[in-house]
Amino acid sequence: MEKTPSSVLFAGIHFDKKRFAKDIARFKPKVVEEDVYEPDEIEPKLPEVAGSKKDKKRMGKRKDIDVVEGFNVFKRSKSLKSADELKIEEDDAKGQRKELEKQIERDSIFRKKYGIHISGRDIPSPLRNFEELKSRYGCKSHLLHNLFELRIKEPTPIQRQAIPILLAERECFACAPTGSGKTLAFLFPMLMKIKPGSEGVKGVILCPTRELAAQTTRECKKLAKGKMFCIKVMTKELSRSGDFAKISCDILVSTPLRLAFAMQNRKLNLSRVEYLVLDESDKLFELGFVEQIDCVVKACSNPSIIRSLFSATLPDSVEELARTIMHDAVRVIVGRKNSASTLIGQKLLFAGSEKGKLFALRQIFAEGLNPPVLVFVQSKERVKELYKELAFDDIKADVVHADLSQEQREDAVDNFRAGKTWVLIATDLMARGMDFKGINCVINYDFPESAAAYIHRIGRSGRAGRPGEAITLFTEEDKPFLRNIANVMKDSGCEVPPWILALPKLKRKKHRPKRGSVGTEPDDAEE
Ligand SMILES: Nc1ncnc2c1ncn2[C@@H]1O[C@H](COP(=O)(O)OP(=O)(O)OP(=O)(O)O)[C@@H](O)[C@H]1O
């Protein structure tokens, strides 16, 4: 006989089955009919959506369940997740969080390696290489091909961070050293995002000088080659007589004055602008420009516009002012804010007086003129005076200043670029943004008016990874202002005599003294 659990438990005990027959009957297992599925029975009809076939089958066995209630119960139970499902989801979320944390850590190590400092929320990962533009953002091959043609292989630090920020449609302040590729950093996302077409201007780039606007337009055209973009620089003629209702233009590069003029007089409509770039932004926020900038910013009324500010120098005051118009902007700084490129060897040279400066310049050229050399002076009058002096020395020199016609200015720049001129004498008109490849030396014949002016002037050399040299002449009159420049030099790793760093701090930052004529004796200047 098969042993049941009870037979084992009660083994050896005498049990009077007759006497307890009733009780035995009570404890006999019953056949539970509800557990038998009978297809002929009238089943409660469930709406299809109530549950799976399995659910229906389960319902079929439960005759006691009220149909309507049952439907509701099943409906609710379907949306509720099982413990297993919840656990899986929780694990997934945990995994994603961990991966995100790892990515943030990797990004931060990467940024540190390239001296990229950021502030703002949800900042996209920096670019590891240009190919990521394709894999992460679907960049068209021909745009990447254009980079290849231009021999641009690796992104520079500002490009690594600013490009993904702009592609993520975030507004930004970008501050990176002179010659470090800021132009491409704002042009490339524009070319990737804007769709060429006839709907009007979609990208606007503002530059403080016409020369820089022309140069940026050229760069933009090179990068856009092969795509049917219409890229235009705002010329005098265009701003005075252009019919913007008929002219097709996707990207417009202009100085603030010309753009404001075209808006007022030629009814240029900027309401569809998707990208607005203020290049050399700190200059654009200076007194002479700020009204026009305000007018342009207001005219770019597209609510989803992306505005960005780029410069090698970004004073806090400008950032504060700009923040009032920008939305949730990200800040990217490469290296130290407001610092000179570390590729430039910088020297200070005491020349005593105006006459001493001319003597020192001749001495520098005599010791070895290594063209191309860019010489900065304070005013257009002084450009002309110095040019006359150098003409006696048989040096191939030329000038650029505001009194020349646009054509003459362009010719001077082109000849210098082509190596036909060795020395270009210029005012601060040439100090910002101009990209002369291979300038060997910048000479500040006249002391720059501010640390920012110094950084931009000397930044015409030491570009795109090449080394450069900068010599700044100073007189007794300039001495009190030396400390500002010396601090910039020290921050970029150059040696500075300790006595200069010990000079008292000046409240007045700008230094633009009335200078005597070039080459005059100190006494002559006082007459
Ligand atoms: N990724 C890159 N690799 C090599 N060269 C580059 C790269 N990006 C830009 N360049 C080149 O570097 C030079 C300087 O670039 P760019 O004029 O944009 O500098 P910038 O940062 O705007 O300087 P500035 O502050 O003086 O205006 C240009 O000749 C440009 O073609």
UniProtKB/TrEMBL annotation:
Matching PROSITE patterns: HELICASE_ATP_BIND_1, HELICASE_CTER
GO cellular component assignments: cytosol
CDD domains with a match to the protein in the record: DEADc_DDX52 (cd17957), SF2_C_DEAD (cd18787)
Name by which UniProt lists this protein: RNA helicase
GO BP, sorted A to Z: maturation of SSU-rRNA
InterPro entries: DDX52/Rok1_DEADc, DEAD/DEAH_box_helicase_dom, DEAD_box_RNA_helicase, Helicase_ATP-bd, Helicase_C-like, P-loop_NTPase
EC nos: 3.6.4.13
Matching SMART domains: DEXDc, HELICc
Catalytic activity: ATP + H2O = ADP + phosphate + H(+)
Gene3D superfamilies, per database record: P-loop containing nucleotide triphosphate hydrolases (3.40.50.300)
Similarity field: Belongs to the DEAD box helicase family. DDX52/ROK1 subfamily.
UniProt keyword annotation of Hydrolase present: yes
Record domain Helicase ATP-binding: where: 163-332
EC top class, as a word: hydrolase
Annotated stretches, region: Disordered: 507-527
Pfam families assigned: DEAD, Helicase_C
Residue ranges annotated for the Helicase C-terminal domain, each copy included: 360-504
Keywords in alphabetical order: ATP-binding, Helicase, Hydrolase, Nucleotide-binding, RNA-binding
GO molecular function: ATP binding; ATP hydrolysis activity; RNA binding; RNA helicase activity
